[in-house]
Specification:
By secondary structure, the protein is an alpha+beta fold. The protein contains 7 helices and 5 strands. The strands form 2 sheets. The chain has a 3-stranded antiparallel β-sheet.
């Protein structure tokens, strides 16, 4: 079995060790090799962070201790009637030097949703990932270049507040016909319309077809 080797830094306090780990991560970076096919963006998963960061933490004698300080859970229903659990939590990550015991705390927040029992796990992973990305300024590529992106911009993972009720009303309103549906759409919030077109395009297309059919049926009944 290979023994872990701890590199003794001349200055062994926690900030010196954070700088050493950050310097090593900056040489290669952590690329965004994973893809979210549904929303069309690249990202670095928590596995990528652990695989790159873990060996360096052991090498330099730096420990990260997570503490969840708050957690909120909200249950929401999707348009299709299933339940989603939204979890928001605050986490304190204590960075400790195993060499002299000095420490500092980094606070981040995690948000996630899941239809099962994984929402909290996902939120904790998100909080850890961004604590690492921001503390060590992990680039997507190695080297010293101005084009390097240090932080990821998180893509939205949940619809705007109130969207689901609005969309349910819009779909139900298709029975009033094309003109009424268009007027309701035009008066709606832009963020609702953008989310509907990006994530519920098929349902919205069916609603528009239903409105045209409603007009046709009323015309035939006259």
């Amino acid at each position: 079995m290979t023994e872990a080797v701890i590199v003794q830094a001349p200055n062994r306090n926690v900030y010196a060790l954070i700088a050493l780990v950050g310097a090593e991560l900056a040489r290669e970076g952590i690329a965004k090799d994973r893809s979210n096919v549904t929303q069309g963006y690249k990202f670095r998963g928590i596995e990528d962070i652990f695989n790159h960061l873990g060996p360096l933490l052991h090498k330099h004698g730096l420990v990260i201790i997570p503490r969840i300080t708050s957690r909120d859970v909200t249950e929401r229903q999707t348009v299709k009637g299933s339940t989603l659990f939204y979890v928001t939590l605050a986490a304190d990550f204590e960075f400790v030097s195993a060499q002299d015991g000095s420490s500092t705390v980094v606070r981040t927040y995690g948000e996630a949703m899941d239809s099962g029992d994984k929402a909290t796990n996902k939120a904790m992973s998100a909080a850890y990932k961004y604590a690492a990305l921001m503390t060590f300024a992990i680039p997507t590529e190695g080297g010293d270049t101005e084009s390097t992106t240090l932080l990821e911009i998180a893509a939205p993972v949940a619809p705007p507040k109130g969207f689901e009720d609005w969309f349910t009303d819009m779909v139900a309103g298709a029975s009033d016909g094309v003109t009424a549906l268009k007027e309701a759409w035009g008066k709606s919030r832009q963020e609702y319309r953008d989310w509907a077109e990006a994530h519920h395009k098929a349902e919205w297309t069916l609603a528009k077809k239903a409105s045209a059919k409603a007009d046709k049926d009323r015309k035939a009944a006259k």
